[in-house]
Design goal:
The chain contains 12 helices and 11 strands. It has about 375 residues and is α/β, with parallel strands linked by helices. Strand 6, helix 9 and strand 7 form a beta-alpha-beta unit.
Length: about 375
């Protein structure tokens, strides 16, 4: 029997601040951020690259990882924001290849990483999580907060909950249930009282971050620049509107309010010019500033999704977010998810919708 970890008590002032922050997000009143282009800069010091949703169970994706040059990034940092591979052997191979090519590799687990459909051992998803974390330790892949050349990097464990969705539901059309649309409900195996059907998993994974609170506090006191990263989405504004989505109920299975609270506890309620959070999961290319924090997603995604992108979706990956003491990065091509987020009143085009928001294995 596994019970949720207990959360440590925050200070009264922090609780009041978070309650005021939460009240500012009302159902049906999601304010969309402006998509901001980034500047390409050449740095001679530390560089941080980000990548998510590698899905190297697909041979094309594994071949893409293998094609990485072995020397080009050997002094760089790579943040891998989850969904590396469902198969354990593919996970280990992928992380080994990345570790050979980057001086530092960081990782947080995604939902596909914890699927148990093909496990030789009869493992549940938490046991598989521990198996993946053990593999990371053996490979030299970081899963805990670390300071590198004065830059704080904080991996954050997370899971989604249905109440994260505050946008009004789409009505008048038939929409498949979450159980039918999301394979997590069948491919993950949770022990005890943990379930995708309530907030227990979101609370459990968020509580795992408490083990690193002392390290995070040290990072806050010594580092002016901090990058946090997770697999799941911390804010609903980081997903296109439901009317633009192939599956309108997608926001119910993507994010966590507790994740955003934890990000704000690290970067500050109002954020700062040096605050950055990296995420994954939805396969949308994203780079926006919301309430003082830069949010970035750079997914490799599925081969079929990359073929639908304007430039194939491979030439700009991995995406650079930090170079030589300043947050920078390549100018990413304009994707329809970015266009719709920046222009929320654009009329819905049903011919574009299926590839604008093709989520992971919905079928």
């Amino acid at each position: 029997m596994v019970s949720c970890l207990s959360l440590s008590t925050n200070s009264l002032s922090e609780k009041i601040a978070f309650k005021k922050y939460r009240r500012g997000i009302k159902r049906g009143c999601i304010k969309r951020p402006q998509i901001l282009p980034t500047a390409l800069r050449d740095g001679f010091g530390l560089r941080v690259f980000v990548l998510s949703d590698l899905h190297t169970d697909y041979p094309e994706n594994m071949a893409w990882v293998r094609s990485f040059p072995t020397k080009r990034h050997n002094k760089d940092v790579l943040l891998v924001a989850g969904d590396v591979a469902e198969m354990y052997d593919n996970f280990v191979l992928t992380m080994s290849l990345l570790r050979d090519r980057f001086e530092y590799v960081f990782y947080v687990p995604g939902n596909h990483d914890l699927w148990c459909r093909w496990e030789r051992d009869d493992l549940d998803s938490l046991q598989k999580l521990n198996k993946l974390l053990d593999a990371c330790r053996q490979l030299g892949v970081e899963t805990n907060p670390v300071v590198i050349d004065g830059l704080g990097i904080v991996p954050l464990f997370s899971w989604y909950h249905e109440s994260f969705d505050r946008e009004e539901d789409i009505t008048g059309i038939r929409i498949p249930s979450l159980d039918m649309a999301c394979k997590d409900f069948r491919a993950c195996k949770w022990p005890g009282n943990l379930s995708n059907r309530d907030s227990s998993l979101a609370l459990y994974f968020d509580a795992m971050n408490e083990n690193n609170q002392d390290t995070v506090k040290q990072i806050q006191s010594t580092c002016s620049q901090i990058i946090t990263f997770s697999h799941f989405v911390p804010r609903q504004e980081l997903c296109p509107e439901k009317r633009m989505l192939f599956y309108p109920n997608l926001p119910k299975i993507i994010g966590s309010d507790w994740l955003e609270d934890r990000i704000r506890s690290i970067h500050g309620i109002e954020g700062s010019s040096f605050a950055c959070h990296v995420f994954g999961h939805t396969h949308f290319c994203w780079d926006a500033i919301v309430d003082g924090i830069r949010y970035v997603q750079a997914p490799l995604a599925y081969p079929r999704e990359r073929r639908r992108r304007m430039n194939g979706g491979e030439t700009w990956l991995p995406f650079c977010i930090y170079s030589d003491g300043d947050f920078s990065g390549r100018i990413s091509p304009c994707y329809w998810s970015d266009y719709y987020a920046a222009n929320p009143r654009t009329p819905h085009n049903t011919q574009l919708a299926p590839w604008v928001a093709r989520f992971y294995n919905l079928v």
